[in-house]
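Thread amino acids onto this structure.
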């Protein structure tokens, strides 16, 4: 099972490296539908320039956590050279320039120290420091986050958003997709006929109905849940089953943001202080 999970990470990132229109590659959440423009304002497209020719393409999602920082998955970091990346905020249609986008280069990358490249070991989270701040143009917003240690009850409905593949054949739409996913509590997701031992307490499982799921290209993006009077990013897309993404009893698995709040705050503060020194 661990081998299958690892295979998915590699397969997904390789598949993402195929550029199109304004230098990005996109897809969608499986079983989802077009989101309404200007709805998921904290959603980010993380883009990579692998040949240093200023030709960027979408590889992962992410979430704006403050004006200078974006949260994504550690496995989305293909290189620790920040000059190879940019983020696009205010994005909706990856095929077109909508006028709502901000294209911002990455200045620094911090991957969780517990990340070892094995998705089943967890800690699949990273923070990107931006070279310039996100400004409020009416199409962006800072994500609300959960309380430290907060968990969601079994069956609680959240929303996954992203530009991941629509199916295993690689069919793609043009705009940001969204879909509802029901949380599968850890005591269920860790059962042998679900994800078993590769589902950790520091993860959130959601889906598993065999119809709706995240897929390659959604990695790093948010699981947004309406809790305590606001939409909050409770998860970062981490992994799913190898092969067909929407498999029964194999829900999409997210890094549980509430398990990493102290680390995130310390990293943001450290990067801010480093930027002041420079």
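Threaded sequence (278 positions):
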């Amino acid at each position: 099972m661990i081998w299958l999970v690892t295979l998915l990470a590699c397969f997904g990132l390789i598949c993402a490296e195929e550029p199109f229109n304004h230098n990005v590659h996109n897809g969608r959440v499986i079983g989802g539908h077009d989101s309404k423009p200007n709805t998921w304002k904290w959603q980010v497209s993380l883009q990579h320039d692998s040949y240093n020719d200023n030709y960027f393409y979408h590889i992962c999602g992410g979430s704006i956590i403050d004006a200078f920082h974006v949260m994504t998955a550690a496995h989305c970091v293909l290189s620790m050279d920040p000059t190879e990346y940019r983020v696009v905020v205010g994005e909706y249609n990856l095929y077109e320039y909508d006028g709502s986008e901000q294209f911002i280069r990455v200045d620094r990358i911090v991957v969780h120290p517990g990340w070892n490249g094995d998705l089943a070991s967890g800690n699949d989270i990273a923070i990107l420091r931006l070279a310039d701040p996100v400004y409020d143009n009416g199409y962006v917003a800072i994500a609300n986050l959960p309380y430290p240690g907060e968990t969601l009850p079994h069956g609680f409905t959240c929303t996954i958003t992203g530009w991941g593949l629509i199916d295993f054949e690689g069919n793609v739409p043009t705009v940001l997709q969204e879909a509802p996913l029901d949380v599968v509590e850890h005591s269920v997701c860790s059962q042998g006929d679900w994800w078993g031992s590769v589902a950790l307490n520091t993860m959130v499982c959601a889906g598993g109905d065999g119809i709706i799921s995240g897929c390659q290209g959604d990695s790093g993006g948010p699981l947004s849940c309406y809790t305590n009077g606001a939409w909050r990013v409770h998860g970062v897309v981490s992994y799913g089953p190898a092969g067909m993404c929407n498999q029964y009893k194999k829900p999409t698995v997210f890094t549980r943001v509430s398990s990493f709040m102290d680390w995130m705050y310390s990293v943001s503060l450290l990067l801010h202080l480093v930027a002041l020194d420079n």
